[in-house]
Design a protein that fits this description.
Elements (H helix, E strand, L loop, with lengths): L1 H4 L5 E2 L5 H26 L4 H29 L11 E2 L15 H25 L3 H28 L2 H33 L1 H11 L2 H26 L10 H18 L9 H26 L4 H23 L2
Parallel strand pairs: 1-2
């Protein structure tokens, strides 16, 4: 009764005939081959060895697709029904992450492994639920084929991406992550945390009005975030420097700049002046520690040198704000 009022464009898997199941397997193999080629295209410039691995995985999918087509011709003829995974309710789907650039190396490898495991689990489960002997046999064979794909992927990875190449590509990916996100974000956090200390605390001690201090801090933080974001995005398109997308760098710098200032501005939402100021001072210490940790963790700056630079600079600006506020 309900399907008359809520018609579905998808069919249940159990309603598919053996020919339709075979056609679905053919279209799925074709889609997966195209996805692997898209992965290869997205990785070729920075990770050529991993790109070769995905090209060979695409070839493996094409071979399986050709075998499935031959089986369809033998059993049902040349006309293959048009049925794809999006036409079947409950069938596994592929996320369009191959459209996102740049591709994350580890994410792509993990997604490829999940693609094969997902298809294997589905076919195995479908075979176990099938009551027809021929359909059960066909689905079981497909499950075995997908399990073989996982072994093929591991073999190809060992062939094209041995341990030394994998380590090299991992270091290259880490370097790109630092250039695109960490460096701009760190510069923004330092600018937002340190440069807003003077105006916020100067306002706080000059007026001892927490709401006014909060408004000054909010405007300074947001203004600095917008300025830093546009500056980072506009001054380098990343093509020559290799620092990555200017939009990504701009967002990283702008957001972290605003957060750095808002950290010690938000406590002034508390109406009691000394309580707000004490909490704001504690937040400043946490911010400076975070900057020091990031410099040590990602920029390989010795811990003591990073701490001295950050603490000295932050302390000078903090002291300047208090002195100006009390003038």
């Amino acid at each position: 009764m309900l399907h008359r009022f809520f018609p579905s464009t998808r069919r249940d898997f159990k309603s598919l005939s053996e020919q339709e199941i075979l056609a679905l397997a053919i279209s799925s193999e074709e889609d997966d081959a195209r996805i692997y080629l898209a992965y290869a295209d997205g990785l070729r410039d920075d990770y050529p060895n991993s790109a070769k691995m995905f090209e060979e995985m695409a070839e493996e999918e094409s071979v399986h697709r050709a075998r499935l087509i031959e089986l369809h011709k033998k059993r049902f003829g040349d006309r293959i029904p048009l049925i794809r995974r999006e036409h079947v309710r409950g069938y596994y789907e592929r996320k369009p992450d191959w459209l996102v650039r740049p591709l994350g190396l580890e994410k792509v490898r993990a997604q490829a492994a999940e693609m094969e495991a997902q298809a294997h689990r589905f076919y195995l489960s479908a075979a176990q639920q099938s009551g027809d002997a021929d359909t059960r046999k066909l689905l079981g064979e497909l499950a075995i084929a997908e399990a073989g794909h996982q072994a093929t992927a591991e073999r190809l990875e060992q062939k094209h991406v041995p341990a030394d190449v994998r380590e090299e590509e991992g270091q290259r990916e880490r370097r790109q992550f630092i250039l695109t996100y960490v460096q701009p974000g760190l510069a923004g956090l330092m600018d937002g945390s340190v440069s807003t200390l003077a105006p916020i605390f100067a306002t706080a001690f000059a007026t001892q009005d927490t709401w006014t201090t909060f408004l000054i801090g909010l405007s300074a933080s947001v203004g600095a975030g917008i300025s830093m974001g546009f500056t980072e995005a506009a001054h380098d398109d990343g093509k020559i420097s290799g620092r990555g997308s200017p939009v990504a760098r701009g967002f990283a710098s702008g957001i972290m700049t605003a957060l750095g200032g808002l950290g010690h501005a938000l406590p002034y939402l508390i109406p009691h002046f000394w309580t707000a100021t004490t909490i704001a001072a504690i937040v400043v210490v946490v911010e400076l520690f975070a900057i020091t940790w990031i410099q040590n963790r990602f920029m390989d700056t010795p811990w003591m040198r990073a701490a001295m630079q950050v603490i000295l600079g932050g302390s000078l600006v903090f002291a300047a704000g208090i002195l100006i506020g009390n003038a």
